[in-house]
Each structure stands twice: as C-alpha cells, then as structure tokens.
Specification:
DUF2933 domain-containing protein; single chain; transmembrane helix; membrane; mainly alpha; DUF2933
Length: 81
C-alpha cells in the first residue's frame, strides 16, 4: 500500500464520522421536534390512541426485517442429526 492509498483510507474514515454525527444530530432534532409536537397535540392523540395502535401493526410488519428469515439454525430436539 502506498501513501496515496493510505491517504484515501484516512479521508473516507473522516467522512464516515461526519456522516454519523450528522445522522445523530438529525435524529436528535427529529426526536425533540416529535416530543414538542406530541406535547402540543396530546388531546388529539389521546382521543385516537386505538387507531394509532392499529396503524403501528402494519408499520411493524413492514419494518421488522424480512431479510433474516431462515438465518437462524434449527435446533429443535425432535430432529435427528
């Protein structure tokens, strides 16, 4: 590996750290904004919590990670090796 390759690797690590910081900052701003939005509109949310719970079901189905199906080993005791 020559000096140019090492400089390139160092530069990409620096950009990755900046991206991580930016994502963390944006996540914190979104959480704080969501808190204040929820606080201001609590009466509307509290009146419709059943519908929000029903809305959470399809969202959890979509976001739970379909790529892991079959990744875990089958360790059932009734199967013979």
């Amino acid at each position: 590996m020559n000096a140019t390759d090492q400089e390139h690797l160092h530069d990409t690590r620096g950009q990755s750290g900046l991206n991580r910081r930016m994502r963390t900052a944006l996540l914190m701003v979104a959480l704080i904004g969501g808190f204040y939005l929820l606080r201001e509109h609590w009466s509307h949310v509290a009146g419709n919590w059943v519908y929000l719970l029903l809305l959470a079901c399809p969202l959890m189905h979509l976001l739970h990670g379909h790529g892991r199906h079959g990744a875990l080993p089958d360790n059932r005791p009734d199967k013979e090796a």
